Amino acid sequence: MLVLSSPFTGQPDRETVHGNAADVASAVASARQALSGWAQSSSAERTKVLTDLADAIAARSEQFALAITAEVGTPEKIAVAVQVGLPVRVLRGFAEDVEQAMAAEIIGNSTVTHRPLGVVAAITPWNYPLHQAMAKIGAALAAGCTIVLKPSELVPHTNAIMMDALAEAVPTGVVNVVPGDAGTGAALVAHDGVDAVSFTGSVAGGRAVGEAAARALKPCFLELGGKSVGVILADADLDKALKSIVNGGLLNSGQTCNALTRILVSSAQLPEVKAKLADLVERMTSRLGPLISQSQFDRVQGFIQRAADEASLTCLAGGTGRPEGVTKGHFARPTAFVATDPAVELVLEEVFGPVLVLQAYDTDEQLIELANGTGYGIAAAIWGEDQQRVAAIAGQLRAGQIDINGGAFNPRAPFGGFGLSGSSREMGIYGIREFQRPVSVQV
Ligand code: NAD
């Protein structure tokens, strides 16, 4: 059992229990038993279950939003729109993609069908707890797989509401939930009855899960961290671009895997951008929620302190400690630095907190080098009016999602990264295909 504290007060306010090996074994047995029935389900049945699940979540929207705000610290409006609204849209998207996912293809004298991988172990983090679970559950259901979910141990109330919605909408045994910590997750990955693993979380967790899955020769899909970049070209609408990047970078207090936490601007614009960025970031102070836990707060403080001690970085806004006047809770100050050396921790490592770093480029070649200069590659944004130049830059960025001039998130488009961000894809037909394998029948 683990005692958790409120992000808002720092005081203990809830407990979480950890499933043991026997709980894992019974969840896997239940998923195995349900597998043959669900694998043979029709597209109409899968579409109905996905739609029912979306409806069951939408009906609990307020309950989910309150729990996620209390457990993660996400401001309530964003909890409703993003934490709950997004997974509902994602599930409805999967429902629309079921037919394509189940259609046979003809290649010469072969008929190719897409068969479910089997029992999927899904392991998810705490930052968008409902969305991350539904991205995996929705895709696996559409593919004809059954699932054992090991959600994050930090959000027990959210998990309980999720289990209630699943029990209402999904046939018995098709989705099973085992609450628990990394040990519970490791037991699940190692279980013989699990055919494939899908993990979202940190690079360290992904490495451990990936190694264990590789030893057992199980397919393993990883969605890991990021250090995503917002690129501003000289002809862009500067105010709009900066506002959008800062909002994206500080969403959920920076605890977002595809947060735009690096900003690239031309050297000529650097002085103007420094001033505008400092002002925007300072003004975000009252709009951000707290970080999830004391350890996350301490981790972020460590990054800010080491950045302040680094000679090639200059602090533009924020700094260590809580915002002025705030005396309790895990509230960190929104913070921005400008960097002259691309080889420093703050430029290379994911903070997972409200900390942005500004860099300058002189040529497009240098811009590409800086943009691709971390081991991560999950998301990027480009702002500029010259469409040819924007397209040429987009074509050279190593990121799975590239938004141009504020292009909206598309819950049916493939989502995922390169390198340290992991290389699997979630959402829509690409997400479903991860949980299927093609079988060729020749006549
Ligand atoms: P984490 O790796 O500590 O934990 C993630 C999940 O994995 C939890 O459920 C945890 O209990 C479990 N886990 C950890 N180690 C394990 C192991 N060895 N074996 C089995 N299970 C294990 O990550 P976190 O702190 O919960 O989440 C934050 C991280 O997640 C950040 O790095 C963030 O960028 C990343 N993330 C990525 C995406 C994406 O889609 N790429 C989305 C959200 C978050």
TrEMBL record:
Which catalytic reaction applies to this protein? an aldehyde + NAD(+) + H2O = a carboxylate + NADH + 2 H(+)
Q: Which residues form the Aldehyde dehydrogenase domain?
A: 6-438
Q: InterPro entries, from UniProt?
A: Ald_DH/histidinol_DH, Ald_DH_C, Ald_DH_CS_CYS, Ald_DH_CS_GLU, Ald_DH_N, Aldehyde_DH_dom
Gene Ontology terms for molecular function: aldehyde dehydrogenase (NAD+) activity
Identify which residues the record assigns to the active site: 223
Q: What is its EC number?
A: 1.2.1.3
Pfam families per record: Aldedh
- Its family? Belongs to the aldehyde dehydrogenase family.
Protein name, entry field: aldehyde dehydrogenase (NAD(+))
Give the organism the record lists. Answer: Devosia limi DSM 17137
